[in-house]
Amino acid sequence: DIQMTQSPSSLSASIGDRVTITCRASQGISNDLGWYQLKPGQAPKRLIYDASSLQGGVPSRFSGSGSGTEFTLTISSLQPEDFATYYCLHYHYYALTFGGGTRVEIK
Amino acid sequence: QVQLVQSGAEVKNPGASVKVSCKASAYTFTDFPHYYIHWVRQAPGQGLEWMGWIRPTTGDTKYAQKFQGRVTMTRDTSINTAYMELRGLTSDDTALYKCVRVSTGWYLDYWGQGTLVTVSS
Question: Which residues of A touch B62 (CB under 8 A)?
């Protein structure tokens, strides 16, 4: 089974900071990866699909990159509403594999 | 607006089974053959864990290897409801269980509110 290793597990950042979250796949997964944002009490929100495509309605400060085994989610300028937990998600052969999650907290 | 409404919280003894329901509204299972219902769980302080899916139009299922033999996913199309049954519960199964609709392009577009299952003697 493919494993998705996400790092860091948590980070503290200030408003306006550039934030980068990484997911590494245990083997090549092409670009079959998405990024989701989870906030308590709210429906999870897809930010990125197919590794680098921005979901409609998502601010352009979010971007995704990578292919194969290494992927990144970047928030170019952290905003107050961005404090949340982020997950990468690999979809393959009709199954899903989540990364471990990254909690983004206020410094 | 599509909604997935799950059954209420459960407290179970170790070794017992639990069956969680997920009722869909504002769309009909049988009208959308490419929409699947997946189940994920999140244990306290842990990340999301995928358990498997059911294709409501056909009843086809696929389970994560970890849960093979212990989980069964079913559906009742007459009431637009999916079910997830987990057997042989242990304290490690204490978690918030969520159903998720997955649409075209592997888009997890609608989530249930979650059902807290607590396993304790």
Answer: 94-95
Average pLDDT value for residue range B10-34: 94
Contact state of A44 with B105 under an 8 Å Cβ cutoff: no
DSSP 8-class letter at A78? -
How far apart, in whole angstroms, are the C-alpha atoms of residue B83 and residue B61?
12
Q: Give the chain A residue whose CA is nearest to the CA of B4.
A: A43
Contacts of A9 (CB under 8 A, 6+ apart): A100, A101, A102, A103
- Give dist(CA B97, CA B114) in Å, integer: 5
> For B50-106, what is each residue's pLDDT tens digit?
999 999 999 999 999 999 999 999 999 999 999 999 999 999 999 999 999 999 888
Average pLDDT over residues A73-86: 96
Which pLDDT score is estimated for A92? 83
Interchain CB distance below 8 Å, A43 and B111: yes
- Find where tokens 């009709």 sit: A94
Residues from chain B contacting residue A101 (CB–CB below 8 Å): 47-48
- Taking CA atoms, what residue in A is nearest to B65? A1
Task: Give the tens place of pLDDT for each residue, A39-54.
Answer: 988 889 999 999 999 9
pLDDT tens for B74-85 read 999 999 999 999
Nearest to B108 among A46, A50, A100 (CB): A46
Residue holding tokens 């790092």? A7
